[in-house]
Write a structure and sequence with these properties.
Blueprint lengths: L9 E5 L51 H7 L3 E2 L3 E5 L7 E5 L8 E5 L5 E2 H8 L4 H8 L4 H20 L6 H6 L12 H5 L3 H21 L7 H5 L1 H14 L1 E2 L5 E3 L7 E2 L5 E5 L5 E5 L10 E2 L9 H8 L8 E3 L9 H5 L8 E3 L6 H10 L3 H12 L3 H42 L10 H23 L2
Parallel strand pairs: 9-12
Antiparallel strand pairs: 1-3, 2-5, 3-4, 5-11, 6-8, 7-8, 10-11, 13-14
The structure holds 2-acetamido-2-deoxy-beta-D-glucopyranose (2 copies).
Length: 457
């Protein structure tokens, strides 16, 4: 996310010594040179300290050793690479450098053998997981779910085995507080407009699927399986930090998992033939500027999916999904551009042509639908204009009602949320309230503009 520079920025960790790409990586982990602690208090002993560190939401996130650990593991970083936090409690961490980086510079390079993938985890964990795999493989999004399920198991296993394991220092650096859909409560869903609530709820159901499948994995201990906090932490870590690989798998690449998402990123991921994963700058990046990558181009205009999956808001986005949903879309709908990344409302309040076309198509009878579709795919503007001549006013009115409905929904959600804030309930009971309000306001601002435009038509 874009950082507001006015906020206090806390340096959480930096490499003790600059590790340059020109130099071979050190062979042993170096001791941390800068002992940096977050301001969070140590929490009391809880069940989870059985495992070395707590993953409770309010437990401190320990980022102090991960860069030096990674260097010891062969991860190369550019000069001045460091992790910063934009908030006082160190929950929200981003990667930047203390020096200007020109376009095309390597930022980090993670060697292939350190990268965790779904396939590698599957091989390592072996046949004991195959029963659980059947459950996941029969789920609707199996292709996405299977690699993530194996990464989820791998994280749980490493957490269970604790200190002394290869990935321990990296596990400690993972966030504990997530606002992602799987962390939301019934209360949160009630405060989101229908589409955002639906996608957030879907994330929560995915978590349930993973946790239920755990019961069929013999090596997962009861303590782990029954701890909602631990399973949610492992699930959210995988879900929000994994990257797709060129061969359709998913991976967790230590240190390459600290880059925030932006729809106007200043860096990108690059896989070499040896499956090492690098991050390169795609333009000049100033010292201290957050280095960002685009997680998934389909999230560029979809703040609700971004919220559901990653728990964040990107207020610089130039458009938002128009949230117009069709129950049983056909190939013809898709041909007209029925897709969240194309059915857009822009900051200016303009609505993308795809929205108009889909709405008009919906109002036509069978034969006219076929003719309109034909004109669209052949790029024949004449007949399309005739349909707009006949149905334009009707479609404008339908769109106006849709947009007005959403503005109203968002207002109602925010009334409930503001009330929580005024009572101070957000502090403990509903810590995600401010985030939900930001999401709703951001989406509302675009819809409100669209409503003004439609009213003026
Ligand atoms: C991948 O990284 C390893 C270790 O850093 C290096 O030896 C190898 O040459 C790299 N592979 C490619 C194709 O660059
Ligand atoms: C706001 C929030 O807590 N969102 C989290 C969702 O997941 C990402 C990736 O781990 C975290 O960085 C975010 O902090």
């Amino acid at each position: 996310m874009t950082r507001r520079r006015s906020r206090s920025i806390v340096l959480l960790a930096a490499a003790g010594r600059a590790s340059s790409f020109a130099l071979p990586p050190p062979s042993r982990p170096r001791a941390a040179c800068l002992p940096l602690t977050t301001s969070l208090q140590e929490t009391g002993v809880d069940l989870q300290s059985l495992f070395g560190f707590s993953v409770r939401e309010d437990a401190p996130r320990d980022i102090s050793t991960v860069i030096d650990w990674a260097a010891g593991m062969g991860v190369q970083t550019c000069d001045g690479f460091a992790l910063y936090s934009a908030d006082e409690d160190g929950k929200d961490v981003y990667a930047a450098t203390s020096r200007d980086l020109p376009e095309g510079s390597p930022v980090v390079c993670v060697p292939a053998d350190l990268i965790l993938t779904g396939m590698k985890a599957r091989e390592e964990l072996g046949a004991a997981t195959y029963e659980a795999e059947e459950d996941i493989a029969s789920s609707p999004d199996a292709l996405d779910n299977l690699p993530q399920f194996y990464l989820f198991l791998k994280i749980l296993m490493e957490y269970d085995l604790g200190e002394g394991r290869m990935y321990y220092e990296w596990l400690k650096s993972l966030p504990k507080f997530f606002s992602n859909g799987s962390s939301m409560t019934e209360f949160c869903f009630g405060c989101l407009p229908p589409y955002a609530a639906e996608v957030s709820l879907r994330e929560k159901q995915r978590l349930k699927l993973f946790v239920e499948a755990l019961e069929r994995v013999p090596f997962v201990s009861d303590v782990l399986m029954k701890s909602d906090e631990i399973t949610k932490w492992a699930f959210s870590s995988v879900n929000t930090r994994c990257h797709p690989t060129p061969d359709g798998d998913r991976c967790l690449a230590p240190l390459a998992d600290f880059f925030d998402h932006s729809s106007d990123p200043n860096a990108y991921l690059y896989w070499d033939e040896g499956m090492n994963l690098s991050v390169y700058t795609s333009r000049d990046v100033g010292a201290g500027e957050a280095i960002t990558i685009c997680y998934d181009p389909s999230l560029m205009y979809n703040p609700s999916d971004l919220l559901a999956r990653y728990g964040c808001i990107e207020e610089t986005a130039q458009a938002t999904f128009a949230k117009y949903k069709i129950d049983d879309p056909t190939q013809e709908h898709y041909d007209l551009g029925y897709d969240p990344s194309r059915m857009l409302v822009y900051k200016s309040g303009d609505v993308s042509q795809e929205v108009w076309d889909v709405l008009l198509y919906e109002d036509l009878g069978k034969e006219d639908r076929a003719a309109f579709h034909q004109a669209h795919v052949t790029g024949d503007e004449g007949p399309k204009q005739q349909y707009y001549g006949a149905y334009g006013a009707q479609v404008t009115d339908k769109l106006r009602r849709h947009v007005a409905f959403l503005v109203n929904e968002l207002d109602e959600c925010n009334i409930g949320l503001e009330m929580q804030l005024s009572m101070g309930w957000d502090k403990h009971r509903h810590p995600r309230t401010p985030l939900l309000i930001r999401h709703n306001n951001f989406v509302r601002s675009m819809f409100e503009k669209a409503l003004e435009n439609l009213d003026a038509m």
